[in-house]
TrEMBL record:
PROSITE patterns: AA_TRANSFER_CLASS_3. Keywords: Aminotransferase, Pyridoxal phosphate, Transferase. Belongs to the class-III pyridoxal-phosphate-dependent aminotransferase family. The keyword GTP-binding does not apply. It holds the Pfam family Aminotran_3. Its cofactor is pyridoxal 5'-phosphate. InterPro entries: Aminotrans_3 (IPR005814), Aminotrans_3_PPA_site (IPR049704), Class-III_PLP-dep_AT (IPR050103), PyrdxlP-dep_Trfase (IPR015424), PyrdxlP-dep_Trfase_major (IPR015421), PyrdxlP-dep_Trfase_small (IPR015422). This is Aminotransferase class III-fold pyridoxal phosphate-dependent enzyme. Gene3D superfamilies: Aspartate Aminotransferase, domain 1, Type I PLP-dependent aspartate aminotransferase-like (Major domain). It comes from the Bacteria. It comes from Chitinophaga oryziterrae.
Amino acid sequence: MNNRQLFLRHVAQLSDAPLGLEIVKASGMYMWDADGKQILDLIAGISVCNVGHSHPAVVQAIKDQAEQYMHLLVYGELVQSPQVAFATLLTQHLPASLDCVYFTNSGSEAVEGAMKLAKRYTGKTEIIAFNNSYHGSTQGAMSIMGDEGWRNAYRPLLPDIQHLEYNSFESLDSITSRTACVVAETVQAEAGVRVPQKEWLQALRAKCTATGTLLVLDEIQCGLGRNGTLWAFEQFGIIPDILLLGKALGGGMPMGAFIANREMMWVLTNNPVLGHMTTFGGHPVICAAGMAGFKVLLEQDLISSVKAKEQLFLKYLQHPAIRAVRSLGLMIAVEMESFAVNKKVIDYCIDKGMLTDWFLFAPECLRIAPPLIINEEEIKQACDMILEAARTVA
Ligand SMILES: Cc1ncc(COP(=O)(O)O)c(C=O)c1O
């Protein structure tokens, strides 16, 4: 059997039509398949490879740390310098109230940790989330997922959860003194890039403060520069009580984090002791990789050009087949007439050497979330291909 057949036989599948491209190398903006075909990556492993594939600084940091030490002991016992250095660097770039980092292996685990922390800290149980939000596939994270179709397939899930309409002022009335936390994406990604009104996020912040509810902002997909500022919440003039990070956090390696105030995080240390445990969260090699990626992001000033790059996409992406384009920074949804049309456009692009896909709750929208290093020529090339596909198939 060839690799593709073995893949279909032995690797668990989540759809009956996986892409099944066999990638043998990836670097910067590009991937190469087993036949040597070059593929422009327009989605960065779904908002992961912000500094590009296999950035040399990240690769070097992994090699150096692997030679020093890899796994030592479960989370939170030993002083491991890569963990300490990365937590310190992250908190130096965050508001003073977000000064304590709990590293996890994934975004979903960051969501789980934050929900547990909110329950413990507030002594309350109700959790509120929003329709069309995606926070991960573990059972807790899935309980707050904003789609009944997925939730219903896995019931019973966590009790005492409400889903509200995102960006609706009326919905805020449902947040009360019973609510432990509200979990919201600062910008909804899988809904097809839904940017909330600034006033709405500010009203949400105010309602949480008034009711003693913790505001948990999920920036797992939109954080770390993708929206044009280091943290998306900066653009809305609010500060969350707990910030969730993941995806690009590990520089291409698996990592998440929930970040809160030191005093709040302290509730995980007693009654019971070891209130949230992980064997591998904050792994030294991953922390070294994440720190190297974070430094590239800052030192190469990759974020300051994000908005100009977004504008280029918006300028080029004009065609009658494109119904709307929604964006914040390099998180862009290109809305087509239907999933059927979008799928044809996507398949055309992939066939011609450019990887893109659609959004979980907006299958009619084509996803643009490239590495932030994408240059003007590549943006033009990507848009030309989308337009060519639209002309050919739509
Ligand atoms: C906004 C958001 N939150 C949470 C997650 C879950 O992260 P992970 O897949 O690392 O568990 C995702 C993943 O796509 C996401 O987009």
